[in-house]
Fold Polygalacturonase inhibitor protein.
Amino acid sequence: MSIILLLLFLLCCNTTVLSTKNSDEIALLKIKKQLGDPPFLSSWVEGFNFCNIITPLGPNGFINVGCTNTSRVDGFVMRHLINFTAPFPEAICGLTELRILVIYQNPNLYGQIPSCINKLFNLNQVLISETSVSGRVPHFYNNTNLSLINLARNNLSYSLPPSLSTLPNLGNNQLHGDASFLFGTAGLIILANNSFKFDLSYIEFRDNLYEVDLSHNKIYGKVPASFATAVGLAYANLSFNRLCGELPQGGIMGRFSAAVFANNRCLCGYPLPPCSNSSPAPAPAPA
Ligand SMILES: *[C@@H]1O[C@H](CO)[C@@H](O)[C@H](O)[C@H]1NC(C)=O
Ligand SMILES: *[C@@H]1O[C@H](CO)[C@@H](O)[C@H](O)[C@H]1NC(C)=O
Ligand SMILES: *[C@@H]1O[C@H](CO)[C@@H](O)[C@H](O)[C@H]1NC(C)=O
Ligand SMILES: *[C@@H]1O[C@H](CO)[C@@H](O)[C@H](O)[C@H]1NC(C)=O
Ligand SMILES: *[C@@H]1O[C@H](CO)[C@@H](O)[C@H](O)[C@H]1NC(C)=O
Ligand SMILES: *[C@@H]1O[C@H](CO)[C@@H](O)[C@H](O)[C@H]1NC(C)=O
Ligand SMILES: *[C@@H]1O[C@H](CO)[C@@H](O)[C@H](O)[C@H]1NC(C)=O
């Protein structure tokens, strides 16, 4: 009996060790396949040493796989593959210990960011930028490990998932809807050059907010009083929206030039020209 148990134990645990050891390799080989088995990944074969390798393509392009000191993949960087056309490899979700994911300057990488990305509980930094990925921003697992999400300059659309609350940089996409919930936790909020539409009047600008770029959207309402008291705010840009009414005064307002508030529907008061005596006419409702 005890021999059988011992055998079972050996069997089980050997298998477990083997399968976790190989799961990263299996995922990487799947990624290779989903990228269309390109010649530059020909060294990626069963049993290859994938830890801390750099596979170059072209002058500045490469794929870099990083590992922990227990040989688990914790970093995946795919950068500057200019002439390389492929779909976003969903098999990245098989790299279950992944902490850093960088997919940068791959203009011909298309498809969607897979929703299974929210199963990567260790993710700490996600940069997916300057690609042609489209579709929805995935729901990111709401975890305390995530410290950076930069999805700027892609072709993402639709509205945002409510789980997205960690340092989002979503500039230069085609996103719309309400993004006001981001103001609850994030310290950096970049929504520039989208079609977001929400009322700014009731948003609380908190002290931990240090950078906010809302320029070129369809944000309406007035600039709330908390904007002038958000002591951490080092950079702001509210230009090219549909804001209206008198700017809050005092506090940190001296940090900002008129350009920060330019091209809105009817903002007034320092650093913009004073509001006229006859209180500003209510803006016509947005069409
Ligand atoms: C591996 O790294 C962790 C921290 O990242 C450290 O605590 C541990 O001692 C290291 N193990 C070895 C074998 O170097
Ligand atoms: C991309 O392809 C074009 C034409 O095939 C070539 O001229 C250019 O050098 C390539 N660029 C890179 C970075 O490989
Ligand atoms: C981005 O999406 C729009 C439609 O939503 C499409 O017309 C355009 O070709 C896409 N651009 C890229 C670079 O994929
Ligand atoms: C954060 O990562 C650690 C390991 O790096 C993991 O044990 C922990 O569960 C993660 N936290 C959350 C909230 O997912
Ligand atoms: C995020 O996590 C908190 C605490 O763990 C939980 O209360 C909240 O419902 C979660 N939000 C989402 C959108 O998953
Ligand atoms: C928004 O788009 C304009 C025009 O393409 C560009 O000049 C500006 O830098 C963009 N803003 C940001 C924050 O990327
Ligand atoms: C604000 O954003 C607009 C549009 O992206 C840009 O033209 C302008 O230079 C920015 N202003 C400041 C003060 O950064």
About this structure: The first strand starts at residue 53 and ends at 57.
